[in-house]
Amino acid sequence: MSGDEPQMTQAKERPDLPPCEQPDSAGIVRTKFFTFAEPPNEMPLDSGARLGPITLAYETYGQLDARRRNAVLICHALSGDAHVAGYHSPEDRKPGWWDGMVGPGKAFDTRRYFVVCPNCIGGCKGSTGPASVNPATGRRYGRGFPVVTMADMVRAQKALIDHLGIKTLLTAVGGSMGGMQVLEWAIAYPESIWTAIPIATTPRLTAQGIAFNVVGRQAILDDPNYRDGDYYEHEPPARGLAIARMLGHITYLSDESMHQKFGRQLRDKDDYSYEFDVDFEVESYLKYQGQSFVERFDANSYLYITRAMDYFDLAAKYGSVEAAFRSVLARFLVIAFSSDWLYPPYQSKQIVSALRANRAHFAYYEIPSNYGHDAFLLERERISRVISDFLALNYARALDEEKR
Amino acid sequence: MSPAANHARLRPDLLEIAALVEPGTRVLDLGCGEGELMAHLERSRAVAARGIEVKPERVVDCVARGLAVCQGNIDDGLQDYEDNSFDYVVLSLTLHLVSRPGLVVQEMLRVGRRGIVSIPNFGYWRIRLGLLTRGRVPRAGCFKEPWYTTPRGHVMTLNDFRDFCRGNAIRIERQRFVASGGPLSRALASAIPNTFAQLGIYVVSRRHQVPGAEEGG
Prior knowledge:
The complex is a heterodimer. Chain A is of the alpha/beta class. Chain A has two domains: about 20-205 and about 305-404, Rossmann fold (3-Layer(aba) Sandwich); about 205-300, Rna Polymerase Sigma Factor, Chain: A (Orthogonal Bundle), CATH 1.10.1740. Chain A has helices spanning about 150-165, 175-190, 205-220, 240-250, 255-260, 280-295, 300-310, 315-320, 320-325, 345-355, 375-380, 380-404; strands at about 30-35, 45, 50, 55-60, 70-75, 100-105, 110, 115-120, 135, 140, 170-175, 195-200, 330-335, 360-365. In chain A, the strands form four sheets. Chain A has an eight-stranded mixed sheet, with helices on both faces. In chain A, helix 1 (about 150-165) crosses helix 2 (about 175-190) and helix 3 (about 205-220) packs antiparallel against helix 7. Chain B is α/β, with parallel strands linked by helices. Chain B has one domain: Rossmann fold (3-Layer(aba) Sandwich), CATH 3.40.50. In chain B, about 35% of the residues lie in helices and about 20% in strands. Chain B has helices at about 5-10, 10-20, 35-45, 55-65, 100-110, 125-135, 160-165, 185-190, 195, and strands at about 25-30, 50-55, 70, 85-90, 110-120, 170-180, 200-205. A seven-stranded mixed sheet of chain B has the order 3-2-1-4-5-7-6, sandwiched between helices. The longest helix of chain B has 11 residues, at about 100-110. Classes of the chains: A alpha/beta, B alpha/beta. At the A-B interface, helix 10, strand 14 and helix 12 of A face helix 4 and strand 3 of B.
């Protein structure tokens, strides 16, 4: 790297400034919307159904360079949204979900790269999903929303990327479900993606992964307030959704991280209550996670998105994982975490084996971490270092290619 | 980017290994460390290099060099690697540190058409002399670390390695011997390697199984 490039140094915190004005903050961002697939040109889905019009909520950070080679697509996980970094207003105290990774001087350095993060279809954060109003009926889709797949989500993202005038993404990156989308991108649009960074993900959701989704969905479906998905005019199935989220949270942690975070500590008391109130810290934590999730997430979206994850199976779709990767051109950086038992490293190694068999250019990095699956959100320093180096080199390589 | 500068930084035995690699080939470097050899081979010999490294922090160093590195332990074998998928599989100064050296060499020769192995010579005269006179394992040649700080180690001489090859249908196609010091040291090392070379570098292949080998299939 030459000396005049901005370095990966974290800017100093300024206690006198609000969060959104910190030198390394992505600052104030606004969610944008892109609508396409207007009837009669609806987007065909894997299920055979058609969906349209489709609106994608998305946020962008930084500027597209003159050659349009610096675009980074961030794919969010199950409960994520388009708000990946920065703040929505000066009073906003809660930054985007991957704020530690996106901003001036951060891994996805917004002084160098143009970052795009869309909310997936089927979601409930501004993109078309079961809570959206179906223009054909004037009513919310509810369970009338078609089941979508990872490939469908990616197909919609491709329409957005085309709309933004980006021919080739510098990279697509994402953890967990976001990683599945990264794989779909590299396979479905090999010419449109220069590098791929799948994190803590899998080429096919395992029986264990499906099993957890099943229980989460069952909790929602069995909630009396669910009303077959037609609950928008009534009380939402909050209890079911909260239980689904509590279960999810257990799978994102690890034995070790739970032990470190909570141990057997009691919550605001010195002795057991000998009742079924909240006694333990871990109890309080899960309860809080469940309840706060209800305020920001739609139960139907939870059903549709987990279903899309269940159906994700590159081996079934292409004959084998190896065959799935036959067409890829992107260079890969595959990242896994040692204590992740939801998407254990062996599943990332299946991606790696398929890349190897196809003689693709890849690096596989297994981060020693106690944080379990959540490590992809928490191991900021280690992930940042490897990604910033990987991106800088591959951006230079992309510009080299442009000159030829 | 100055190739000369890269040359200057490369360990002498790695330079020797690089010189044995045909340009434009596919090379797998086992225990590739920070990727010095891979980077050198890609730049100077247009090689498609792949590496395996067990330490996560070194994997990051390799990524920072733009190298294709896979975190893994060669003691676990190379079962994810297809037969004959590389022209060369390189193992530099690592054979004495793996738990089952014989298996690793067989795996190298399954995955690669040729293997390039560099091994430290326990028969080096300074080691022999030290052991004889002081009664302690000397820290000379490639054995710089004391016995208690290294994870594990097999001690072998260059002759031991030759015997191993002979007994396991492994052909030594080429060999190089390295000794620090002046022209006299080097001359002695090529004349009587088992005594005067600090390390030996061997290009090995399977007998009867290399296409175009003497048996001709």
